[in-house]
Structure formats: structure tokens, C-alpha cells
Amino acid sequence: MESALWTRGAIMLFIEQEYAFRLSIRAVGDYLKRWGFTPKKPIKRAYEQRPESVKQWIDQEYPAIEKRAKAEGGETHWGDETALVNTDVRGRSYAPKGQTPVTMTVRGTRQKLSMISTVTNQGKASWMIIDGAFNHEKLIELFEVLVADGKRAGKKVFLILDNLSVHHCKPVKAWLAEHQADIEVFYLPSYSPELNLDERLNADLKHVISTRVPVRTKAKLHAAAKNHMAFIETHPERVKSYFQDSSVKYAA
Q1: In the chain, helix, strand, coil percent, each to 5?
Q2: What phi, psi does 17 have (nearest 5°)?
């Protein structure tokens, strides 16, 4: 059956097709509630994703990284980059019954920034806001920051990134080869961004920015992002909460 979402209507049609029995929408909802089903926002997952690679990563590759990090006194970071725009609207808004809520958006002055960040399960967040497109030079700049912090703490950096071409292009590989005593990079399975726990930080930041009064200039967008990231940086319990996401379970 071709259906993007298992709504009550889709389930009603499925029952009719399979069993030649038609239930009302309300009856389908009652049955689902009785069986313990509730509506949830689905996780986006690419068709190209290979489940066997995901399972191998969760069951074998990630535990091996954590084991090495603990044995070598290292620190495991999850890294990701994201785009920030001043026209993004997320979440819900209350309104009287029968009326659709209206949110004011900026037209004609769309502003965009990029950010790259990392998080650890100890509640540490590192980040850089970039005016322009993200590239390998900015990634190496982040590596340098992480390595400097690691040296001050006496810890080698174990960094987990998405499997994107910019993350392992020739300049990045060359830089990492020269600094392998201080930092190692590991890659998630292709088409599996939901496995990256730094995605939760990105969602946190975008939600906060989108629920505030719309910012019309790049400077104000930068200030809004910087203020919230500074807040996150000083609230490790908020970062730790990202690691409690029930949609992804990693071995401790």
C-alpha cells in the first residue's frame, strides 16, 4: 500500500483492502488507542540507508570507538554542521478553534549562516558560527580548536562525523594524517544522519531561533544563535539530555 504516513485514514483503507471490511475513522482511532498506539512525529530515514550497516555501527563500530577512547583516556565528540536561516518556522501555536494561527515571517531579506558543532555525553559543546558556506577549511579550523582543547585537558579527541565527502576530502585526510596522535575521525554509515547525536543540538538551536521574534538582519541572526549556543555551553545537563533520545540507543 502506497502511503507516506500511517494515518487513521491509511489504516482504514488498508483494513478494507486486506479484509473487505470498512471501519469508520473514529473506530480506527479507538482501536489504535486501545492497542496502545499514539500519533508521533516520524523520524526521517533515507531510502538509500542500509539497515545492516546501521546495525553494525550501533552493535560493533561505536562500542569499539568508545572502548578505545576510555582505554586511551580520550574524549568522544559527535560533530555536525547545519544551516541557520531567519525564515525558518517550527513548532505549533495556539489559536481559537477553527482559526489557523499566523506567524510573521521575513520576506525579501532572507539571511543565512552556517554552524558546525560537537557534543559529548559529558555535556560539553563546542561550536563555530560561519558567515557563508561550510567547507573543508572551516572543518579543519574546528579540528584545531578541538585539538587545542584536548591538549589542555590531556585528552585525545575521537570525533564522529556524518559520511559526507567534505569530511574526508584530500585536504582533510592530509591534515588528520599529520595530527593522528591528537585526533581521530570516524564516520557514520551513509544516509544515516539520525544516528548523529549532534543533530539534537541543531534541532534545539533552530527551534529556539524560530520561536523568537523574526530577525531581519544577519547580525541579529548571528547574535540570536550565539546567545543560545552560549547558554547551551554553560548548561551541560541540556547537552546530556540529547543522549537520552529514545530513537537511538547506544551502548554506554
Answers
A1: 45, 15, 40
A2: -70, -40
